[in-house]
Design brief:
Elements: H1 11-31, E1 49-56, E2 59-67, H2 73-167, H3 187-193, H4 200-208, H5 230-276, H6 282-304
Length: 310
């Protein structure tokens, strides 16, 4: 009588079962990290591990093991908040300083533009007045030249009359010592009476030097200091005034240019201050803001030395 022996399980079947079991355990641990770990038979718990409650919307949904020695998230959070608060404080200070610089730079730029406009007006008015003064000087100079021609003609006619009267044996009124006393009815007396008032003092001073006998005497009355026509004095005065007005106009032009330069410098201050609030890098922000502060201080000191026009 034959009996059938029970079939033996092949060894490969046991190996495949163990592999499937390990693979199932790994899949469960990977796909269910937020739920309470399942204690499977034959799988020892993780030694030296701590359980940390994972919260979602302030509700505990499970625990996961966390090895010892790893830094805690809760311990790092306070230091992060402190660093963030420090950076926010620095940013606020930068914004306050940049805003103050922008406001001051805008005001000073407007003031510089106002001063430049005022000095431009002074320049225009000075140049216009200088042109008018030169025109008046030219007119007075022409008048002085015309009047001097009249004086020269009167003087030379008087000299010719004296010579004619002397050759004719008439009394011309000219004494031997060089003094002159007009004789009524003579041509020399007629011409002398028609001398212009500005010529008479120079003519009398010229005769006092005895030009008929003294070779060192002045040659004509027109080189005497007493001869100074009013029109010539007006021409010289107007010419001098025109030169002063031209200098005033040039200085006003320079002052206007200086204030334009100040406007450019304060505009650069506003630009640097505005850009410093847009930069994230702390060093670049500090450099731009520092440049704005230094440029503002230098421009302010230089601007205070410029003359003001109100």
């Amino acid at each position: 009588m034959s009996s059938e022996a029970p079939s033996a399980v092949p060894p490969t079947a046991h190996a495949d079962g163990s592999a499937r079991w390990v693979l199932a355990v790994l899949l469960m641990r990977l796909t269910l990290p937020l739920v309470s770990p399942v204690r499977l038979p034959g799988v020892p718990p993780c030694r030296g591990a701590k359980r940390q409650v994972i919260r979602h919307d302030d509700r505990a949904v499970g625990t996961v093991p966390q090895p010892q020695g790893r830094s805690r998230v809760s311990a790092e959070k306070p230091s992060g908040r402190v660093a963030s608060t420090g950076r926010s404080e620095v940013s606020r200070r930068v914004e306050v300083l940049a805003t103050a610089l922008l406001a001051l730079a805008t005001l000073v730029t407007a003031w510089s533009a106002f001063q430049s406009t005022k000095w431009s007006g002074v320049m225009s008015n000075s140049y216009a007045a200088a042109s008018a003064a030169r025109a008046e000087s030219t007119r007075a100079s022409n008048e002085a030249g015309q009047l001097q021609i009249v004086d020269v003609t009167s003087f030379t006619s008087w000299v010719d009359a004296i010579a004619d009267e002397t050759r004719a044996g008439k009394d011309s009124g000219l004494a031997v010592d060089g003094t002159y006393s007009p004789v009524d009815g003579t041509q020399s007396a007629f011409l002398y009476a028609r001398f212009r008032p500005e010529l008479v003092p120079a003519f009398d001073a010229w005769l006092a030097h005895d030009p008929l006998h003294d070779p060192s005497a002045p040659t004509t009355p027109f080189v005497m200091d007493e001869y100074h026509p009013e029109a010539r004095a007006v021409a010289e005065s107007e010419l001098e005034r025109a030169e002063k007005l031209s200098v005033t106009a040039q200085r006003a032009n320079q002052n206007g240019d200086n204030y334009v330069l100040m406007s450019i410098m304060f505009a650069a201050v506003a630009l640097f201050a505005g850009l410093s609030t847009k930069l994230v890098h702390r060093a670049a922000r500090s450099v731009l803001l520092g440049a704005a502060v230094v440029l503002f201080a230098v421009a302010t000191v230089v601007g205070l030395t410029f003359p003001k026009q109100f």
